[in-house]
Amino acid sequence: MRATWARRLGIVLGTLFWTVGVAETLSHLDGGWPFWAGSLVGGGTLVLAGALHRWPSPLIPLALVSAGAMLGANATTWTGVLPAFAMLVVLLFVLDAGDRIDAP
After folding, report:
1. All structural domains of the chain with their residue ranges
2. pLDDT digit string (tens) for 32-60?
3. What is the DSSP string of 53-80?
4. Cα angle at 80 between 16 and 87, to 5 degrees?
5. pTM of the model
6. Are 96 and 57 in contact (CB under 8 A)?
7. DSSP secondary structure code for residue 40 in this structure
8. Which residues make Cβ contacts (< 8 Å) with residue 69, sequence separation at least 6?
């Protein structure tokens, strides 16, 4: 059950990062767009890669989601909401990875 919530919330987080990243990139085409594209679109891509694909090791999605959440949270720190949501998603992936590693 926790793995399902981790995946679903990871997909939501990745989609949010992508949406905000595209909007910020388009609004900053005159300067600063590499920061927004790299952090939000790149972070969203990593989160989606970790959440959508069924990886053989539980550590691969954990690493991808953690790196993507860190990238995206860097650019959305001013909101306060998205970094907190990103920490929740990473925590769910940590708990899921622990469950999958301990399972026989």
Report:
1. 2-102
2. 888 888 999 999 999 999 999 888 888 99
3. S--SSTHHHHHHHHHHHHHHHHHTTTTS
4. 70
5. 0.89
6. no
7. I
8. 13, 43, 47, 86, 87, 89, 90
